[in-house]
Design goal:
By secondary structure, the chain is α+β, with helices and mostly antiparallel strands. The chain has 4 domains: 111 residues, Rossmann fold (3-Layer(aba) Sandwich); 92 residues, Arc Repressor Mutant, subunit A, CATH 1.10.10; 70 residues, no CATH class; 147 residues, Reverse transcriptase/Diguanylate cyclase domain (Alpha-Beta Plaits, 2-Layer Sandwich), CATH 3.30.70.270. Helix content is 33%, strand content 26%. It has 15 helices and 24 strands. The strands form 7 sheets. It has a 6-stranded mixed beta sheet. Strands 13-12-16-17 form a 4-stranded antiparallel beta sheet. A hairpin with a 5-residue loop joins strand 16 and strand 17. The longest helix is centred in the C-terminal third of the chain and has 22 residues. It is flat, with a radius of gyration of 33 Å.
């Protein structure tokens, strides 16, 4: 296969290799990031590392999958490591004769991209998790390790995620990672600990010994001398004379000759040059180099830096599309947290052992949720979920409870009802929901799937939920 270069100018070209076109950029060439989506991959060469860093970061921080998932290959004519940028890129070549390698990288990533389902996330955190797991999946990367980075505001950088945040907001990446772990998408292990400014969350701090009275760092230390023969204890300046550099005791006028024999230095005393306060135990303050706040070290925020690994659930979330976090759906009015729902179910089963009554679990699932959410923005998604809960709540008793098992599945308790009544209520609710969606969401086809499970006091609550949710997409 051959390749040809169609030059736009001396810094930007379109390279062709087989069915692929590669956008080639070098030496501070100007480019609209949107142009990236019209090519198979991007090849970047430059001796100016700041330019490379800016360009790669701009691509990876885009909100469009057509841009942020685009293969990036670095042209390195000389072997060189570029911290963080190497993590964001997908490979490197030594010269433009290696376009076959670029094509192989492009084909591999493109095939992985085709596996993914893209939906509109309901919150910013869900959107960031979507980007992260999509990049990990297409790069066939399992781990997310923090990189010590001088340009990072928290001293560590998670390239595929932190690139989405302004320097002053990088600490927010830690919150997103924690949410992803809470969702079971990532699992982590301890890596390091950093201390952040309690005002602006920067790790760029200057630690200083300060006066405990006025917090000035302008202090002068002086040794305290204990003269053995007469017992006098005082700062060294009391022992100095104006004639020579020898030490004479101000109490008995004897010369101090041998430390450990005539005298010792048991401690140090400090004098503040700002307020003249004398003290032996100084305070340690941390001055933030970002916002200039000056606080005691015990007021800093202690933050764990952790390494993360993509779970199997995370891979499936990338393929199926990640819409929302548990935090988002837990905030829906009229519902309880899923963990609370499971606890209440456990107690209901115990109650049935005594009452011998009939209770049921109901699941209402949006089987085409990926297609539905891909057509809706975050506000419309929230509105849809709110409407679903409102309809369900109006058709069940106040003693029954509702919870989201996921963004596509709602579970409902229907206690002290025969199963036939529970089924009838569920069918009626689905009809109302379908009519509501037709009236409120134009051209939105939502497919509902329902399931009813009658509670059996001889089974655990986990067994009931497993039966209820089995095979629901």
């Amino acid at each position: 296969m051959k390749h040809v270069a169609q030059h736009k100018d001396n810094t930007q070209s379109i390279l062709e290799y087989g069915d692929y076109t590669f956008l080639y950029l070098s030496n501070l060439s100007l480019v609209q990031i949107e142009e990236v989506q019209f090519h198979s991959a991007v090849i970047i060469e430059s001796k100016n590392l700041d330019y490379v860093r800016l360009l790669v970061s701009s691509i990876r921080s885009s909100q469009s999958p057509d841009i942020y998932l685009k293969p990036i290959v670095l042209l390195k004519r000389e072997p060189v490591d570029i911290p963080v940028i190497d993590e964001l890129a997908d490979g490197s070549i030594r010269n433009l004769d290696e376009l076959k390698t670029v094509a192989q990288i492009t084909e591999r990533i493109s095939n992985r991209v085709h596996d993914l389902t893209f939906t509109n996330s309901i919150s910013f955190e869900a959107e960031m998790i979507t980007k992260l797991i999509s990049l990990l999946y297409t790069k066939e990367q399992k781990t997310i390790d923090p990189v010590p980075y001088v340009y990072s505001n928290i001293n560590y950088y998670y390239p595929l995620l932190s690139v989405n945040f302004n320097r002053t907001e990088e600490h927010s990446a830690l919150s997103v990672l924690q949410i992803a772990e809470d969702e079971g998408i990532l699992r982590s292990e301890y890596y390091d600990r950093v201390y952040l400014c309690s005002s602006c969350s920067s790790a760029h701090l200057s630690y200083r010994e300060v006066c405990p009275k006025c917090s000035s760092s302008n202090t002068t230390p002086d040794d305290i001398i204990h003269h053995f023969p007469c017992g006098y204890v005082g700062p060294m300046k009391d022992y100095k004379n104006q004639i020579d550099d020898k030490l004479d005791c101000p109490k008995c006028n004897k010369r101090l000759r041998h430390i450990g024999v005539d005298y010792d230095k048991p401690s140090v005393i400090y004098e503040c040059n700002h307020c003249a306060h004398k003290f032996q135990d100084y305070y340690v303050n941390a001055k933030c180099l970002s916002c200039a706040s000056d606080k005691a070290v015990d007021q800093l925020k202690s933050i764990e830096i952790r390494s993360y690994r993509l779970t199997k659930k995370g891979e499936l979330a990338a393929v199926k599309g990640f819409v929302t976090t548990t935090k988002d759906i837990d905030e829906t009015v009229g519902t309880i947290k899923y963990d609370t729902f499971k606890t209440m179910l456990k107690y209901e089963i115990e109650r049935l052992k005594q009452s011998q009554g009939e209770s049921n679990l109901c699941a209402i699932n949006i089987s085409n949720s990926s297609q539905v959410y891909s057509k809706l923005g975050s506000e419309l998604q929230k509105s849809l979920l709110k409407d679903l809960v409102s309809v369900i709540r109006s058709n069940i008793r106040s003693s029954d409870v509702i919870a989201f098992e996921s963004s596509s599945t709602i579970v409902v308790s229907m206690n002290d009802l025969p199963q036939r009544i529970a089924k009838k209520i569920t069918v009626e609710m689905v009809h109302i929901l379908e009519d509501l969606i037709k009236a409120g969401f134009e051209d939105l086809d939502v497919i509902f799937e329902t399931r009813i499970v009658q509670l059996d006091h001889s089974k655990t609550h986990e067994a009931h939920l497993k039966e209820l949710l089995a095979d629901l997409s």
